[in-house]
Specification:
The complex is a heterotrimer of chains A (515), B (99) and C (262). Chain A is mainly alpha-helical and 515 residues long. Chain A contains 20 helices and five strands. Classes of the chains: A mainly alpha (515), B mainly alpha (99), C mainly alpha (262).
C-alpha cells in the first residue's frame, strides 16, 4: 500500500516549530550544558523561541490556510491569539528569570527531587542554582497553547490540551519556598485537570460517534445536516465542560484559588495570563467553527455558566484575605465576563460579528494586566517569601509609592475603570452581548463588575489610607527582567485604555476563522 | 444485541470512574479511577469506529493510550514526590543513620 | 459497506466479559486496599482488550493488554509498593455528605448519558470496517496515522519529552561533584579518626533501646557518643542500682569460687 504524504505548510507551522524547537534545544542544554551557565542559556533559548514565535505570527498576518492534512487552521483569529500567547509567554519567562528579588535568587527550587523539609533541602535553600528544567517545560506549555488555539481537529485539540497541561502540573509544584503547599497545588491541579480532560475526551468520542469525523469543519457539516441529535448535544456539553475547567469558569473553578496560591508566583502569572487565552481561544473555535450552526444547544449553557462565574468570582473575591487568592477569584469573574462576549456570535459563520474581536481584545488586555499584577506581588516580600496577606499591604504607598501606584493601575484596570484597558475590554464584550440581545446578561455583568470593583478598590484604599504595619514587608528592587515586565504591562494597560483604536481595529480585521 | 450495549457499558464504566474520583481519597486510587474513565472512552471510540465504518476512532484510542502513558508518568512522579515529602518530613529531620 | 450483524459468539463474549468489566470497576472503587484496586482495574482492562479484538480492532486489543495492563498498571503497582501499601492518607479534602452527593450525581450522569446514548444509537447499524478491521488493520491505521493525523502524532513527541523530563525533575537527585563520597573514601576517613569502630548502642543497665536514650557506662554516666544527633535525649527512669550483698549476692557466689554452700 502506498501512503501519500499530507500537505504540510512549513510557513504556517513556523511559529509552532520555533517554540517547540526552542523547548527541545532547552532539554538538550539541560543534558549537555555546563551547570554554571545553564540558567542564562536556558533563559536565552526560551526567550528566543517565544519571541521568534511572536515575530513569525506577526509575519504570517493575513494568512488563511488549513494545513497539516487539515489538522491545523492558521487564520486571523488563530494568529492573533498565538501572538498574544507568545508575547505573554515571553513576559512570563522574564518573570521566571528574575534573580534579584528572592534572597535565594530564584522563585524555583534547586532540586525538586529532594524531599521538602529534609536536611538537604534546608542546605539547598540558599544555593543559587535553579531547577532550570522549568524553562523548557514552560516553553512546551506555550507551544501547546499556541497549538490549542489553532487546532482544527478535536483530536489535535485534545493532544494540545495535554501538551499544555502536563508541564503546568509539573512547574506549579516547583516553588522554592513553602514547598509542601506548592506540591499539594501540583497534585490537586493534576488530579482535577486530568479528570476534566477525561470529560473532554468523552465529549470527543460522542461527537465522533454522532458525526463520524473529528475535523471541526466536518462536524459542522454533519451537525448542520441534523445528524446525531442527542449524541451531539451530550458530546458538546462534555467538551465545553472540559474547556471551561481549563478556563477556570465557575462552577469548574474549584482548583483555581488553591493552585494559584500554591504555585510559584511567576507560574501563577503564566497560568492566569496564557492558559486563559488558550482555553478561550479553543472555546471560541469549537463553538464558532464546529457548532456555530447549533447555537441553540450551547447558548443556554454558556449563558448560565457566565452568570454563575461572574457572581461566584465577585462574591467570593470579597471574602478573601490573601492577594493571590483574591486575584484567582478575580480571574474566575473575568472568565464570566469573557463568556458574555462569547455569546455575541457573528450571525453567519465568517461575517464579522462583534463577539469574536471583543473577546480577543479582552483576552489580550486581561492577560497583560493580570501578568503585571502578579509581577507586583513578587516585589513585596517578608521574611519567609512573598507577603501576600492583605494586612501586610497596609500603608504600602508610604513605603514605596511607585509600587503602590503601579499596583493601583493594574487593580483599576481589573475593575474596569475608564482610561484603562479593562474598561475598553469590558465595554467591547458587553456591547457584543447587548447587540446579540443578551442584555439581561450584560446587566448581571455590570452588577458583578460593581461588586468586584469593591474588592479591588479595597486594596487600593488599604495601600494609601492605612498606617503601615510596624513589621511590614519590604519592597524589593526588581532586576531587569521584572522591570521590563512591569514597564511593558503598565504601558500596555494604559495605552489600551486611552488609545485602543489600533488594537481594536487589528482584532476586528483578524477576527476570522477558517476551517 | 447491538453497539448500544457496548456504548452503555462504556457510559457506566465512565460514571463509575468519575464517582470513584469523587469518593476515594487516596491520590493513587483517584488516579486509577481517571484511567478507568479513559479506558471507557477508548471502548466508546472503538465501538463507534466499527459502527461508523471509519478507522479514525481506533487511531484516537491509540492517541488516548499515548497521552495516558505520559499522564501516568507525570502524575505518579508528582504523587511520589509529595508522598516522599510527607513521610520524611517528620523522620528526616533527625539524622538517624549513624555509622 | 453493508451492515454487519453481531454474531452469537460475540454476544456470548459480551455477556460474559461485560459483567466482569463492571465487577472490576466496582471492585476498584470499593476495595480499601490500593493494591486490590489496581488488580481489579487490571481485570477491567483485560476484558476491554478482548472487546477491542472482538470489535475489529485486533491491534488495539494487543496494545491495550501489552501497554495498558502490562506497562501502565505495573507502573501503578510499583509506585504503590514504593509509597507503602497502606498509604491511605489523603491529599483531597473530605467533605461531609460528599459520598452520597457523588453517588447521586453519578447515577444521574449515568442515567442521562446512558439513556441518551441508548436512544441515539438504538437504530444505528454497524457499517463495519471490513478488511481494515481484520488482516489489514495495522496497515490501515498506519496509513491514516501518518497522513490525516500526522500533526497529532508529531506533537505527542512533545508530550513524551515532557513526561521524561518531568519524571527526571521530580525523581532524580543530582549529585554535585564532591558532595557524596565513595565507600572507599568513607572508610578511609573513618580510620583516620580516633574512633574507627561503630558508635556505642545501649549499654550497661540501659532500660530502653530507643535512639533517644543514651547508653549507660558501667559507672552510671551516659555515654555521649551513643546519643543520636538531632534528637533531644530523653530521660529514662533507670533501674534502681542494686546495693548490698543481699541483692547482689557475693561475687564469689556469682563466680562459683567459694566453698560456701549455695
Amino acid at each position: 500500500m502506498t501512503i501519500e504524504a499530507p500537505d504540510l505548510s512549513l510557513a504556517a507551522l513556523a511559529p509552532l516549530l520555533f517554540v517547540f524547537g526552542a523547548a527541545c534545544i532547552g532539554v538538550l542544554v539541560e543534558a549537555f550544558g555546563p551547570r554554571d551557565s545553564r540558567h542564562p542559556v536556558q533563559v536565552a533559548v526560551a526567550l528566543v523561541g517565544t519571541l521568534g514565535g511572536l515575530v513569525t505570527t506577526v509575519l504570517l498576518a493575513g494568512t488563511r490556510e488549513v494545513t497539516a492534512g487539515g489538522a491545523l487552521a492558521v487564520d486571523g483569529a488563530g494568529l492573533f491569539l498565538q501572538a498574544t500567547i507568545a508575547g505573554l509567554g515571553a513576559l512570563s519567562l522574564l518573570l521566571f528569570a528574575e534573580r534579584n528579588l528572592d534572597p535565594a535568587r530564584s522563585a524555583f527550587v534547586v532540586s525538586a527531587a529532594v524531599p521538602a523539609g529534609s536536611v538537604r533541602d534546608r542546605e539547598l535553600l540558599t544555593v543559587q542554582r535553579v531547577q532550570t528544567e522549568v524553562y523548557p517545560l514552560a516553553t512546551f506549555a506555550i507551544g501547546g497553547m499556541m497549538l490549542f488555539v489553532t487546532a482544527n481537529d478535536l483530536l489535535v485539540m485534545f493532544v494540545a490540551l495535554e501538551v499544555l497541561s502536563l508541564p503546568l502540573y509539573l512547574i506549579s509544584g516547583l516553588a522554592r519556598r513553602r514547598r509542601l503547599l506548592s506540591q499539594e497545588a501540583a497534585v490537586k491541579y493534576f488530579l482535577l485537570g486530568s479528570f476534566a480532560s477525561a470529560f473532554f475526551l468523552y465529549g470527543v468520542a460522542l461527537v465522533y460517534g454522532a458525526t463520524g469525523t473529528v475535523r471541526l469543519a466536518g462536524v459542522r457539516e454533519a451537525v448542520a445536516g441534523a445528524e446525531g441529535g442527542t449524541l451531539v448535544v451530550l458530546g458538546l456539553a462534555l467538551l465545553v465542560v472540559g474547556l471551561l475547567f481549563k478556563a477556570s469558569v465557575a462552577p469548574f473553578h474549584t482548583w483555581t484559588p488553591d493552585v494559584y496560591q500554591g504555585a510559584p508566583t511567576p507560574v501563577t502569572a503564566f497560568m492566569a495570563a496564557c492558559t486563559k487565552v488558550a482555553a478561550f481561544g479553543a472555546i471560541l473555535r469549537l463553538l464558532y467553527v464546529a457548532f456555530g450552526t447549533e447555537e441553540w444547544t450551547w447558548r443556554p449553557l454558556v449563558y448560565g455558566v457566565a452568570i454563575v462565574s461572574m457572581v461566584i468570582g465577585a462574591v467570593l473575591g470579597l471574602t478573601q484575605t490573601d492577594l493571590k487568592r483574591m486575584l484567582a477569584y478575580s480571574s474566575v469573574a473575568h472568565a464570566g465576563f469573557l463568556l458574555t462576549g462569547v455569546l455575541g456570535l457573528p450571525a453567519t459563520g465568517d461575517a464579522a460579528g462583534s463577539g469574536l474581536p471583543a473577546v480577543m481584545f479582552y483576552l489580550l488586555a486581561y492577560g497583560l494586566t493580570t501578568l503585571g499584577a502578579f509581577a507586583v506581588l513578587t516585589l513585596v516580600r517578608s521574611g519567609e517569601g512573598e507577603a501576600t496577606h492583605l494586612s501586610q499591604w497596609a500603608g504600602l504607598a508610604q513605603r514605596s509609592p511607585l509600587t503602590a501606584a503601579v499596583m493601583s493601575l493594574f487593580l483599576l484596570a481589573l475593575a474596569g475603570i475608564p482610561l484603562t484597558s479593562g474598561f475598553t475590554g469590558k465595554f467591547a464584550v458587553f456591547r457584543a452581548a447587548i447587540e446579540d440581545g443578551a442584555w439581561p446578561l450584560a446587566l448581571v455583568a455590570l452588577l458583578a463588575s460593581a461588586v468586584a470593583a469593591f474588592f479591588y478598590l479595597r486594596v487600593i484604599v488599604l495601600m494609601y489610607f492605612s498606617e503601615p504595619a510596624v513589621d511590614g514587608p519590604t519592597v524589593g528592587v526588581p532586576g531587569l527582567p521584572t522591570t521590563i515586565v512591569l514597564a511593558v504591562t503598565a504601558a500596555a494597560t494604559l495605552l489600551l485604555g486611552i488609545v485602543p483604536g489600533a488594537v481594536l481595529g487589528l482584532a476586528d480585521r483578524a477576527a476570522i476563522f477558517v476551517g | 444485541m447491538s453497539v448500544t450495549h457496548y456504548l452503555v457499558l462504556a457510559a457506566i464504566l465512565f460514571t463509575i470512574g468519575a464517582v470513584g474520583v469523587l469518593v476515594r481519597r487516596n491520590a493513587i486510587v483517584v488516579f486509577m479511577c481517571i484511567e478507568l474513565m479513559l479506558n471507557s472512552v477508548n471502548l466508546t471510540l472503538v465501538t463507534f469506529a466499527r459502527a461508523t465504518g471509519t478507522i479514525d476512532g481506533q487511531i484516537m484510542a491509540f492517541f488516548v493510550m499515548v497521552v495516558a502513558a505520559a499522564e501516568v508518568v507525570v502524575g505518579l512522579a508528582i504523587i511520589m514526590s509529595i508522598y516522599r515529602t510527607r513521610r520524611s518530613a517528620s523522620v528526616d529531620d533527625a539524622n538517624l543513620l549513624k555509622y | 459497506m453493508t451492515d454487519v450483524a453481531i454474531g452469537t459468539g460475540e454476544a456470548v463474549v459480551f455477556w460474559i466479559l461485560g459483567p466482569v468489566a463492571l465487577a472490576g470497576a466496582l471492585g476498584m472503587v470499593f476495595s480499601r486496599n490500593a493494591v486490590h484496586s489496581a488488580l481489579w482495574l487490571v481485570t477491567t482492562m483485560l476484558s476491554l482488550g478482548v472487546f477491542y479484538v472482538v470489535q475489529s480492532a485486533p491491534f488495539l486489543g494487543a496494545v491495550q493488554i501489552i501497554v495498558y495492563t502490562g506497562a501502565i498498571m505495573i507502573l501503578f503497582l510499583f509506585v504503590l509498593m514504593l509509597v507503602g501499601r497502606d498509604s491511605s492518607d489523603s491529599v483531597v479534602e473530605t467533605l461531609r455528605g460528599q459520598r452520597v452527593a457523588a453517588t447521586v450525581l453519578g447515577v444521574g450522569f449515568a442515567g442521562l448519558v446512558g439513556a441518551g446514548i441508548a436512544r441515539a444509537t438504538r437504530d444505528t447499524g454497524i457499517e463495519g470496517l471490513g478488511d481494515a478491521g481484520g488482516t489489514g488493520n495495522i496497515e490501515t491505521i498506519a496509513g491514516v496515522l501518518f497522513t490525516r493525523y500526522l500533526l497529532a502524532f508529531e506533537v505527542t513527541s512533545a508530550l513524551l519529552i515532557t513526561a521524561a523530563v518531568g519524571a527526571m525533575v521530580l525523581a532524580h537527585i543530582e549529585r554535585e561533584p564532591g558532595s557524596r563520597q565513595t565507600q572507599k573514601e568513607l572508610s578511609r576517613a573513618r580510620f583516620l579518626t580516633d574512633r574507627p569502630q561503630t558508635l556505642p548502642g545501649p549499654g550497661v543497665f540501659a532500660r530502653a533501646n530507643s535512639v533517644a536514650t543514651g547508653a549507660l557506662l558501667p559507672d552510671g554516666r551516659t555515654a555521649e557518643d551513643s546519643l543520636a544527633t538531632g534528637i533531644e535525649p530523653r530521660e529514662v527512669e533507670q533501674m534502681p542500682r542494686p546495693t548490698g550483698r543481699a541483692q547482689l549476692g557475693s561475687p564469689d557466689a556469682a563466680l562459683g569460687t567459694t566453698d560456701e554452700p549455695r
